[in-house]
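Feature request, filed as a ticket because there's no other form

It would be nice if the structure record came with a short human-readable summary line next to the tokens. Right now we just get the raw output. Example of a typical job, pasted below so the devs can see what we mean:
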Amino acid sequence: MTKPDNLTAVKSLKPAAVWRYFAGIAAVPRPSKQEEQIRAHMRALGQELGFKVREDRVGNMVLEVPAKPGCERAPLTVLQGHLDMVCEKNAGTQHDFDREGIRLIVEQDAQTGEQVVRGDGTTLGADNGIGLAMALAAATSPDVKHGPLEILCTIDEEMGMTGAGALEPGFFHGQRLINLDSEDDHVIYIGCAGGGDATLTWEFKTRPIEAGLEIGCVSVSGLRGGHSGGDIHENRANANKVLVRTLSAADVTGVRIVSITGGSKRNALAREAQAVVAAPRETLAALRRSAADVCEAVKRESAEPNAAITIESGQGAAAVSVEDTQRLLRALMALPHGVLEMHQKVAGLVQTSSNVGTIVCEPFDGQGGLRVVVGNLSRSSMPGRIAATWAQIAAVGQLAGAIVKTGNQYPGWNPNPDSPLLKKCSGIYERLFGEKPNVTAVHAGLECGIIGERVGKLDMVSIGPRITGPHSPDERTYPASVEKTYKFLTAILAELAQG
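Raw output as currently delivered:
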């Protein structure tokens, strides 16, 4: 495992304890579903600090933190975050997420002058490493007053929230919970959308590419990507959709797919996509015209100034038939993507959305067949709307001859505006910062809904520092915002410590 020198990078940042813990977390590989190394790191850290460490059968972890002297009678407070991170990197960046930690870079934003922290061509993992770091700093700093704490660390949040979904009643004992996985320092979240996956699979026969056909590689790149929940309302382009739009122009005829891939995470907006196709020479010329037209349209429609669609020579010996290619492309074109409904009662809140997140292809059956698998993540805060979106996706897939599977559904978090914890946090925020917080729900998924469903009634809020570009290599967090949020968190804990 390669460990970057992150402590040196963040040595000037405050609060020092938060950045020290985050530097250590960032240095440990922690892809979703591969949390063994970060679990070992947190286990060793907890034991070193003298905390009792509990783990369940799937790898969720609780660090039991004793109260500060004089605060022992306060009720338990749970500080919750997740151990894993989305692993995305820029094209050309050499980084093995299974073996290498994230290298932290501290710099000034060229446009705003703000100090920012980012990864070196990769996602930063502030989602949710910075939340865990704040919890550890609050638990261990001598100047922070707090009652008894449980730091709940869940696994596999980013790939389906399966860790939260496996929690058993009694694994932790607190009845008020502060989730530290939000991304706006002026907001207290009290609700979130639920979600679920829909997967479409085709198995195509291929045949040798005839003489006279040319092979081209069509690549979409330069898109911003981002979080498929938190950024879906910004009309960012999806590379999978852009690729299909390019291949589906009216005068692009006779195309046969050799391979097609796009995106890497179901909960991230696809930044890059690629198709290798075989077609007559005149069709490739039409495809180049389509690429230029679509690229210009994407820049205009979606505020994607760096969008690029290139066509280069490709390689391949076999391809799907023209008919099957068109069947696949039409299905991909028809799949719902983006904002589907806005909330009827909460202004500006997305109610239902869907993301065509991934396209994967692979050979099958040993006879030259090509399997294409398309992953979709749908979200909604309205009961029944995920099922309705799944039905739409399934209809498209079934009409196009796909095998459709749905599942991994997780519940939303129903807002409780009468929450005692919310009332206390809102009052503290207003006293500290001289203004009322924005109390709202978020379209992204938080584990609060699942945790509440699994372990019973909890009083919950979610807070966190400003993070931009999560789930993409553009992910940034802002030291000034981290300092503000930490001040807020420690003030909450001090007041809760009074019982």
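Something like this underneath would help us a lot:
The chain has a mean pLDDT of 95.
The domain at 6-193+413-496 is CATH 3.40.630.10 (Aminopeptidase).
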